[in-house]
TrEMBL record:
Keywords: 4Fe-4S, Iron, Iron-sulfur, Lyase, Metal-binding. Pathway: Carbohydrate metabolism; tricarboxylic acid cycle; isocitrate from oxaloacetate: step 2/2. InterPro entries: Acnase/IPM_dHydase_lsu_aba_1/3, Acoase/IPM_deHydtase_lsu_aba, Aconitase/3IPM_dehydase_swvl, Aconitase/IRP2, Aconitase_4Fe-4S_BS, Aconitase_4Fe-4S_dom, AconitaseA/IPMdHydase_ssu_swvl. This is Aconitate hydratase. It comes from Pigmentiphaga litoralis. It comes from the Bacteria. One of its GO terms (biological process) is tricarboxylic acid cycle. It catalyses: citrate = D-threo-isocitrate. Residues 692-817 form the Aconitase A/isopropylmalate dehydratase small subunit swivel domain. Belongs to the aconitase/IPM isomerase family.
Length: 900
C-alpha cells in the first residue's frame, strides 16, 4: 500500500490511505480525517517492518464497532513544557543510573524521536504595574530556577534530538502552532524520501491547540511521554469520533472566545469525554487558524481527546503568514491532496459515531465561572448568579458566606473592596493570546477607555503575558500597547502565568482586606482553567473570558456589574461610560489585523539574531556535561526519583491482589476532582507538609518557589498530593485542604501523615471519587504522588482520559462503579474496611471485581469494573507500571529481577 507522488521532480513515498481503506472494505471518503491519520500511521509502520498486525489495521477501519481495541501508534515527536519536561528528563537521568548499576548500556537510554521542551511554566507575576516588571520577573525567574535550568542545559547535550526553547520564547502551544509544527514531515529512509503527517503528543493537556493546523495531537502524562520518546509504541484505544457541525457566524459584539465557551459548554453537556472531536460544517471555512486554535485549545475543557480541524486552504494561508518556507507549504499541500488529508471547500462530511450541531450565531459575550471552564454565563447573568452563590452552601456550588456577612462593611485599609471585587485581571495563556483579533480588541478597549479618562481601581492586580513576542510587537505596531500600559496591563513576561497558578502575590493591603472581611474576591483572566485554588489561594471566584472583557472588568473593579445598565466609570467631563462606549467594532479590529498577519513579524520573532535578554541569560548559565547527571545530595530542587529503584517484580498483579485484600480509604471526594486538587501547581503554603519540609531544610519562604518549580523533588511532591488548599475531602466535610481521618483510630491529620502511618503499619490505601475524577491538566505527579502515598486503587464513577492512563502507568488500579452507582449512592462513608476479590483475574479478562466494605452500619457488597482498557495497559499493570517496564528493556537479558 506504499505509493509514490512526484514533488519537485523527485519521487516521494507515502502510505496510501485510500488503498488501505479499500483493502479493508471501506471507502476513504467515509472515514473521519482523524481516522485517516491513525490508519496512515499503522499502515506506514507495518510497511516499515514494525510490529503492526493486520487485525490492528482492520480495527481502525472498523472504528465505529471496535472502540476500545488496542492500537500501537508511533508519534512523530513529543513536546513538553518545562513543568512536565523536567520530571521526564529527570526520570531518564535516573533510568541511566539504574541501567549503569546493572551493567547495561547507558547510551542506549536516549531520545529516539525529536523532543522539544519550551520553558514557559516557571514565570511568576512577582512584579507588575510598571515598565520594570518584565526585567524584574525575568531576573527572579532565573534566580529561583537556577538548578532546574542548568539541568535542562545538561539534558540538551546529553540526549539526542532534544531541543530546548529558553525562557521568554513564549507559551508552548503558541510556539508549537506558529513555529514548530511542520504539519507534514519529510524524511529520508534507505528506500528514498517519505512524507507522512505530523503527529505529536505533549506533556500539557492543551496540546490539541495544534489540531487547528490539521496536526493530530493531544496531551498525555509525562509518564506516557517518557515511553514514547524512548521509541516505544504509544498504545491508544480505537476512538469514538464525534462530528461537530458548526454553522452560522460569530456576531458582534461576541468574539471567538465567546464561541469557544459556547462550544465547551455544549460539548461537555453532549458527553464527548474521551472521544475525538472533528469539526466540519459551513462555519469552519470562515474560521482562520487563530480562531480554530481558540476552539481546539479548549478540548480538555469539553473533555475530548482532540478538537480536530483538517488541513485546508486556511491552513496553508496560516503557514505562509507565519513564515514557513514557501516550498514546504507547497509540499504540505501536495502530500495532503495526494493522500486524502486535504479538505476542499464544500466537501461531503465523513461518517461519524454521532453528530452534534452548534450554531455560532448563538454566542454572546460571556465568562465561564466561578470554578469550571464549562460553566458559561452570558455577562448579563453573572451579577445575579454571583449574588445567589454567596450564601449558598459550598456543597451546592456556593461560597457558604453567612447571611449576616453577605454585605460586609468595606475594610478601612481598602475601602473599595467587598464581595465580588476583582483583585486580579490577567491577559494571559495560550488560549487567547494566539488570536490577534481578541488581543487587538483588548487594546482598542484600553485605547477608548484611556481617551475617556477611565482608570482601573488600585486594588486590581493587572498583567499582560502574551503567548509569544510576536503579540507584543503587533500591539506596539498598532499603537495599543501604551494604552494597555496606561491601565496597568504592563508586559510581565512570556509564559503560562495566572492561568497556571503563577499569579504571584497580591498587594498586602488587599490580602489584609480579604482576610479581615472574609471576602469572596474575584479574578478575571483570558485563560482556559479556573478550578478552585488554582489561580490564587485568596481568590475564591475565578472567571475566564475574552481579553477585551478582562480589560472591561478590570475597569469596573467588580464581577457583579450589570454592563447594560451600570457604567464602567465616569469620563473626564463627568459623563457615565458604559461598556458599549468602549467596545470596538469588527471594522476597528479588521483594520489592524494586517499588522499581525505580516510574515516578517514571525521571521523577526524567531530569528536567533533577535534573541532577547532571556536567551543571553540562558546562554551564560554553566551546566554539567556527559551522559550521566551528577546529582547533588544537598539539592532540594533536583532529587533523584525513586521510580527505578526496588525489586523488578515479576508478579505485580499478585502483589496488588494481596494489597487490596484489606484496605482503608485515604480520602473520599465528590464529582469533578481535578488534577489541580490532587497535585497543585501554585504557591506552597508554609502550614502544609511540603512547606514544613522546606522550612525544616532551612529554606526561607521567599525561596519556596511554586509546586511546579519543585516538581523534581519527589519529597515535596508526595507531600503536595491531595494538598490543594481548596480540596474537599468528604471524610472531613467541614474542612478544606489536605486533611483526612486516619483509621481505625479516627484521628484527624494531613493526608501525607495518614499515608505515612498506614505505610508504617503495612497497610495499603484506596481513594473514593465521583464523576470526572482527574479532570484538568495532564499532571503526571497526580498519579506519581498517589502511588508514593501508597494508593493501590481509585474507585470513581468516571475518569478523565489522561489521569486514568497515568494511574495505570504508575501501577495504580483505576476502578469504576457500575452505572448508576457510586460510593455515596451505596451508602458508604469512607470509614469502612474494603476487601477486593479476584483482582488479577479481572484484569486479565475484564470481568467485574467483587468488593466488600465492612463498616459500622454493616457489610456492603458491590462490584467495580477495571478501567484498564488495552492489552498494553494490562501488561503495564502486570509489570508494576511504566518505570519498571521501561527499565527492563535496557537491562542485559540475564537480569530479570532483583534489587536495583
Amino acid at each position: 500500500m506504499t505509493h509514490v507522488f512526484s514533488y519537485d521532480s523527485h519521487p516521494v513515498h507515502y502510505a496510501d490511505i485510500a488503498s488501505a481503506a479499500r483493502t479493508g472494505g471501506r471507502h476513504v471518503t467515509e472515514l473521519p480525517y482523524v481516522i485517516r491519520v491513525l490508519l496512515e500511521n499503522l499502515t506506514r509502520h507495518r510497511s516499515w517492518g514494525g510490529p503492526v498486525s493486520e487485525s490492528e489495521v482492520q480495527a481502525v477501519l472498523d472504528w465505529q464497532h471496535r472502540s476500545g481495541a488496542d492500537l500501537p501508534l508511533h508519534v512523530t515527536r513529543v513536546i513538553l513544557p518545562d513543568s512536565s519536561g523536567l520530571p521526564v528528563l529527570q526520570d531518564l537521568a535516573a533510568l541511566r543510573d539504574a541501567v549503569a548499576l546493572q551493567g547495561g548500556d547507558v547510551a542506549a537510554v536516549n531520545t529516539r524521536i525529536p523532543v522539544d521542551v519550551i520553558v514557559d511554566h516557571s514565570l511568576q507575576v512577582d512584579h507588575w504595574g510598571d515598565a520594570s516588571a518584565l526585567g524584574r520577573n525575568l531576573a527572579r525567574e532565573f534566580e529561583r530556577n537556577d538548578e532546574r535550568y542548568r539541568f535542562l542545559k545538561w539534558a540538551q547535550q546529553a540526549f539526542d534530538g532534544l531541543r530546548v526553547f529558553p525562557p521568554g520564547t513564549g507559551i508552548i502551544h503558541q510556539v508549537n502552532l506558529e513555529h514548530i509544527a511542520p504539519v507534514v514531515v519529510r524524511a529520508e529512509r534507505p528506500d528514498g524520501a517519505w512524507a507522512y503527517p505530523d503527529f505529536v503528543i505533549g506533556g500539557d493537556s492543551h496540546t490539541p491547540m495544534v489540531n487547528a493546523l490539521g496536526v493530530l495531537g493531544w496531551g498525555v502524562g509525562g509518564i506516557d511521554a517518557e515511553a514514547a520518546l524512548l521509541g516505544h509504541a504509544y498504545t491508544f484505544p480505537v476512538p469514538v469520533v464525534v462530528g461537530v457541525r458548526l454553522s452560522g457566524r460569530i456576531v458582534a459584539p461576541a468574539t471567538t472566545t465567546d464561541a469557544a465557551l459556547l462550544i465547551t459548554q455544549a460539548l461537555r453537556e453532549a458527553g464527548v469525554a474521551g472521544c475525538m472531536v472533528e469539526f466540519f460544517g459551513p462555519a469552519v471555512e470562515q474560521l482562520g487558524v487563530a480562531e480554530r486554535a481558540t476552539i481546539a485549545n479548549m478540548s480538555p475543557e469539553y473533555g475530548a481527546t482532540c478538537g480536530f480541524f483538517p488541513v485546508d486552504a486556511n491552513t496553508l494561508a496560516y503557514l505562509r503568514t507565519t513564515d514557513r518556507d514557501a516550498a514546504h507549504v507547497d509540499f504540505v499541500e501536495a502530500y495532503c491532496r495526494a493522500n486524502h488529508l486535504f479538505r476542499a471547500p464544500g466537501a461531503a462530511a465523513p461518517t461519524y459515531s454521532r453528530l452534534v450541531d452548534i450554531d455560532l450565531s448563538q454566542a454572546v459575550p460571556s465568562m465561564a465561572g466561578p470554578r469550571r471552564p464549562q460553566d458559561r454565563l452570558p455577562i448579563a447573568d453573572i451579577p445575579a448568579d454571583f449574588r445567589s452563590r454567596l450564601a449558598a452552601p459550598m456543597s451546592d456550588g456556593g461560597f457558604g458566606v453567612k447571611p449576616d456577612a453577605a454585605t460586609p462593611a468595606a475594610p478601612q485599609d481598602a475601602p473599595g473592596l467587598r464581595h465580588g471585587s476583582i483583585v486580579l485581571a490577567a491577559i494571559t495563556s495560550c488560549t487567547n493570546t494566539s488570536n490577534p483579533a481578541v488581543m487587538l480588541a483588548a487594546g482598542l478597549v484600553a485605547r477608548k477607555a484611556v481617551a475617556l479618562g477611565l482608570t482601573v481601581p488600585p486594588w486590581v492586580k493587572t498583567s499582560l503575558a502574551p503567548g509569544s513576542r510576536a503579540v507584543t510587537q503587533y500591539l506596539i505596531d498598532a499603537g495599543l500597547l501604551s494604552s494597555l500600559e496606561a491601565l496597568g496591563f504592563f508586559l510581565i513576561g512570556y509564559g503560562c502565568t495566572t492561568c497556571g497558578g503563577k499569579s504571584g502575590p497580591l498587594a498586602p493591603e488587599v490580602v489584609a482586606a480579604i482576610t479581615e472581611g472574609e471576602l469572596v474576591a474575584a479574578a478575571v483572566l483570558s485563560g482556559n482553567r479556573n478550578f478552585e485554588g488554582r489561580i490564587h489561594k485568596m481568590i475564591r471566584a475565578n472567571y475566564i473570558g475574552a481579553p477585551p472583557l478582562v480589560v472591561a472588568y478590570a475597569l469596573a473593579g467588580r464581577i457583579d456589574i450589570d454592563f447594560e445598565h451600570e457604567a464602567l466609570g465616569t469620563s473626564a467631563d463627568g459623563s457615565p461610560v458604559f461598556l458599549r462606549d468602549v467596545w470596538p467594532t469588527p471594522e476597528d479590529v479588521a483594520a489592524l489585523l494586517p499588522l499581525a498577519h505580516d510574515r516578517n513579524l514571525l521571521a523577526r520573532t524567531y530569528d536567533p539574531a533577535n534573541a532577547n535578554a532571556n536567551a543571553a541569560m540562558w546562554d551564560d548559565l554553566p551546566a554539567p556535561t556527559g551522559l550521566r547527571f551528577p546529582w547533588d545530595p544537598a539539592s532540594h530542587y533536583l532529587v533523584e526519583p525513586p521510580f527505578f529503584k526496588g525489586p523488578l517484580d515479576d508478579d505485580a498483579l499478585t502483589r496488588l491482589e494481596q494489597d487490596l485484600a484489606r484496605t482503608h480509604v485515604l480520602a473520599a471526594f465528590g464529582d469533578s476532582l481535578t488534577t489541580d486538587h490532587i497535585s497543585p501547581g501554585g504557591e506552597i503554603p508554609t502550614d502544609t507538609p511540603a512547606g514544613r519540609y522546606l522550612l525544616d531544610a532551612g529554606i526561607a519562604q521567599r525561596d519556596f518557589n511554586s509546586y511546579v518549580g519543585r516538581r523534581c523533588n519527589f519529597e515535596v511532591m508526595t507531600r503536595a498530593t491531595f494538598a490543594n488548599i481548596r480540596v474537599k475531602n468528604l471524610l472531613m466535610p467541614e474542612t478544606e485542604g489536605g486533611v483526612t481521618r486516619h483509621f481505625p483510630d479516627d484521628v484527624p491529620m494531613s493526608v501525607f501523615d495518614a499515608a505515612q502511618a498506614y505505610a508504617r503499619a503495612g497497610q495499603s490505601v484506596i481513594i473514593l471519587g465521583g464523576k470526572e475524577y482527574g479532570t484538568g491538566s495532564s499532571r503526571d505527579w497526580a498519579a506519581k504522588g498517589s502511588a508514593l502515598l501508597g494508593v493501590k486503587a481509585v474507585i470513581a464513577e468516571s475518569f478523565e482520559r489522561i489521569h486514568r492512563a497515568n494511574l495505570v502507568g504508575m501501577g495504580v488500579l483505576p476502578l469504576a462503579f457500575l452505572p448508576g452507582e457510586g460510593w455515596r449512592q451505596l451508602g458508604l462513608d469512607g470509614t469502612e474496611v474494603f476487601a477486593f476479590h479476584h483482582v488479577a483475574q479481572a484484569l486479565l479478562d475484564g470481568s467485574p471485581i467483587d468488593v466488600q466494605a465492612q463498616g459500622a452500619r454493616g457489610l456492603t457488597r458491590f462490584q467495580v469494573l477495571p478501567q484498564v482498557l488495552t492489552a498494553a495497559e494490562r501488561k503495564l499493570m502486570a509489570e508494576g507500571g511504566i518505570p519498571k517496564s521501561v527499565l527492563r528493556t535496557f537491562l542485559p537479558t540475564s537480569i530479570s529481577e532483583g534489587s536495583l
